[in-house]
């Protein structure tokens, strides 16, 4: 004790507290509000436990033995449980819902929202159907390993839990050759099987491989621009922008290139995403089994208008396709050098349009111009106006 504390103790000596036992009835009167104001203001409730020895409480300086406290608390709990609940009393109890119930609902909503019949899981052509089969086969082969591993993990965790006295545990290191052989042979066989399936299917689904049908394939030349798609029909001498019309049941042979940066041509319901690159030509063969409209888009980021670089593939009966070609030839403008120079300028969300005629060998000239760089540097008619002044 410090000197200051000793002096304070001398001025205010600690006197023992004189307490008197209080009966349960007196304790009820004091705590129920029937006591007088001085008694209520000076009442205090202290309960302590020290060295496993219970001490009573003091209410207004009166000692309450533990037996009286227990009797009072039991009576108060009984009254509280039997008291009616209403608007003037405690609010009604509301059941608490655990947070884990929200996760199944959210997952189910996501699955339902993703079940749109416009993706790779809804094939509308032979190529897309073969790719879906490859996806399902690969997933099934991998699940042969994944499912047993998950089940074994749960079984081991349950069996070797701390409360299971029957599980034998040993801290000694050991080696079991047969166990190692099984653990490594199964993944090895799975990798060999999966690699073989993918190898064979990849060669069968080569984008250049023609699709065998009774009718001659339709030829379409595709040019990726900023930010739109140009489709040229060289045999019909017509063209369209952001709209691809093909006859259903007829194979379509694509030649693709890009007049700007690299892009990616993808129609999920028909299959085989493929890149388009400036100065180069890629080949793709697709077919739609039945009439319908299938969305297509660019699957490679190419600048500001990438999100709007979309088009629609319209598969129509053969007779309707011939009528569409005749209608296009009778309306619209011609795709000559001046029209292409205007079309090649960057633009976003371009509505579909058609051209009644196309300049001869326009696709080959686009490739040559892209390779030589004259579209960006030379003062050719195709170069945008802002680039022509740059020399």
Characteristic key phrases:
391 residues, alpha+beta, 3 domains, seven-stranded mixed beta sheet, 16 strands, 38% helix, disordered C terminus
Structure description:
This protein has 391 residues and is of the alpha+beta class. Helix content is 38%, strand content 19%. The chain has helices at 3-11, 24-31, 37-42, 66-82, 102-114, 126-159, 177-204, 318-330, 337-343, 362-372, 385-388; strands at residues 49-50, 53-54, 57-59, 62-64, 218-225, 228-233, 238-241, 243-247, 252-258, 263-266, 274-276, 282-286, 292-298, 310-316, 333-335, 353-358. Helix 2 packs across helix 4 (66-82) and helix 6 (126-159) runs antiparallel to helix 7. The radius of gyration is 42 Å and the shape is elongated. Residues 14-19, 35-62 and 375-391 have low confidence and may be disordered.
Compact overview of the structure:
By secondary structure, this protein is of the alpha+beta class. It has helices at 3-11, 24-31, 37-42, 66-82, 102-114, 126-159, 177-204, 318-330, 337-343, 362-372, 385-388, and strands spanning 49-50, 53-54, 57-59, 62-64, 218-225, 228-233, 238-241, 243-247, 252-258, 263-266, 274-276, 282-286, 292-298, 310-316, 333-335, 353-358.
């Amino acid at each position: 004790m410090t000197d200051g504390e000793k002096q304070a103790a001398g001025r205010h000596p600690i006197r023992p507290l004189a307490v008197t036992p209080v009966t349960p009835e007196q304790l009820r009167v004091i705590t129920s509000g029937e006591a007088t104001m001085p008694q209520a203001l000076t009442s205090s409730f202290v309960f302590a436990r020290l060295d496993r020895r219970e001490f009573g409480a003091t209410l207004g300086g009166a000692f309450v033995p533990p037996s009286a406290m227990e009797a009072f608390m039991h009576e108060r709990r009984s009254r509280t449980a039997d008291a009616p609940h209403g608007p003037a009393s405690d609010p009604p109890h509301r059941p608490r819902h655990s947070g884990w119930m929200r996760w199944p609902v959210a997952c189910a909503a996501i699955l339902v929202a993703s079940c749109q019949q416009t993706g790779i899981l809804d094939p509308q052509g032979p190529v897309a159907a073969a790719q879906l089969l490859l996806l399902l086969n690969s997933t099934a082969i991998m699940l042969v390993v994944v499912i047993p591993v998950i089940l074994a993990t749960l079984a081991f965790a349950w069996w070797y839990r701390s409360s299971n006295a029957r599980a034998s545990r040993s801290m000694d290191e050991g080696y079991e050759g047969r166990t190692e052989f099984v653990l490594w042979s199964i993944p090895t066989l799975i990798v060999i099987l999966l690699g073989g399936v993918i190898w064979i299917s990849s060669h069968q689904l080569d984008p250049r491989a023609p699709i065998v049908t009774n009718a001659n394939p339709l030829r379409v030349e595709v040019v990726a621009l900023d930010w739109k798609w140009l489709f040229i029909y060289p045999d019909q001498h017509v063209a369209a922008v952001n709209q691809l019309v093909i006859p259903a049941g007829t194979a379509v042979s694509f030649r693709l290139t890009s007049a700007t940066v690299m892009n990616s041509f993808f129609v999920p319901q028909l299959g085989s995403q493929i890149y388009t690159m400036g100065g180069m030509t890629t080949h793709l063969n697709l077919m739609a089994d039945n009439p319908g409209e299938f969305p297509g888009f660019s699957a490679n980021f190419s600048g500001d208008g990438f999100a709007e670089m979309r088009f629609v593939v319209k598969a129509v009966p053969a007779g309707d396709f011939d009528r569409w070609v005749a209608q296009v030839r009778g309306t619209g403008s011609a795709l000559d050098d001046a029209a292409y120079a205007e079309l090649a300028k960057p633009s976003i969300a371009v509505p579909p349009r058609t051209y009644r005629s196309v300049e001869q060998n326009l696709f080959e000239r686009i490739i040559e111009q892209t390779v030589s760089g004259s579209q960006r540097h030379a003062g050719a008619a195709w170069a945008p106006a802002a680039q022509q002044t740059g020399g």
